[in-house]
Amino acid sequence: MAQKADTVKKSYMPTGVRFGVDMISIIRTPIEPEFGGWEGVADIDIDRYYLVMEAGRWSRDLTSENDTYSNSGNFWRAGVDVNFLTNDPERNNFFLGLRYARGTFSEQLTTFITDPVFGDGTIQNANNDVRASWAELTSGLRVRMFSVFWMGYTIRYKFGLNTNESSGLVPYDVPGYGRTDKNSTWGFTYYVLFRVPFEGRKK
């Protein structure tokens, strides 16, 4: 008599949570005078799905011949990743995902003018407490290096930007999103992560 094949029931109880920081923004801050910022991430597994929360802050200081521009603000993203390496004993992740993102920032543009009649002067325009929202399609990899130490990257396709500025100044750069002169843009983050396993929850 043939034996019945063993069946494995899926467990939707989380087995651990990971925390990480984006190394690209940390490296850029001291070496690029026009940029300052940081970004962090946390995720938790539910079978092959990972609930993800990301948050950060960045600022820009740009100067051209006739203008200076600066901004500063915070942003966060929330979403889910779907892991396609379901049988990997190391729990490495190759994933596709989706994010909803929001940010709040202020910006200022100063234009220097030279007039032969009235002399030199400046024109200032500003947006204060602007709220922005957008969506992201994501893909990437998370690899366990050793013990609880992980590394990995996320590629982001950002689209659907919406802002609620009240002045006549059209936002030039949105923290977490980037420049606004295109309908969509790309982003890249490289994370160093640490995983905290839950006691008694092993697959």
Q: What this model shows, in words?
A:
- With 203 residues, this protein is mostly beta strands.
- The chain has a single domain, classed as Porin (Beta Barrel), CATH 2.40.160.
- It is built from one helix and ten strands.
- The chain has an eight-stranded antiparallel beta barrel.
- It starts with 15 loop residues before the first strand and ends in a 6-residue tail after the last strand.
What is the top-level CATH class? Mainly Beta
Q: Which structural class do the helices and strands define? A: mainly beta
Number of strands: 10
Return the domain count: 1
Enter the CATH topology name.
Porin
Q: Just name the CATH architecture.
A: Beta Barrel
Order of helices and strands: EHEEEEEEEEE
Poorly predicted sequence stretches spanning 5 or more consecutive residues: 1-7
Rough shape?
Answer: elongated
Going across the biggest sheet, name each strand in turn: 1-2-3-4-5-6-7-10
The helix tally amounts to 1
Q: Kindly state the percentage of residues in helix.
A: under 10%
- For the residues shown, what is the average pLDDT? 90
Strand content: over 45%
Report Rg.
22 Å
Q: What is the terminal-to-terminal distance?
A: 31 Å
How is the main sheet built? 8 strands, antiparallel, barrel
Quaternary state of the chains = single chain
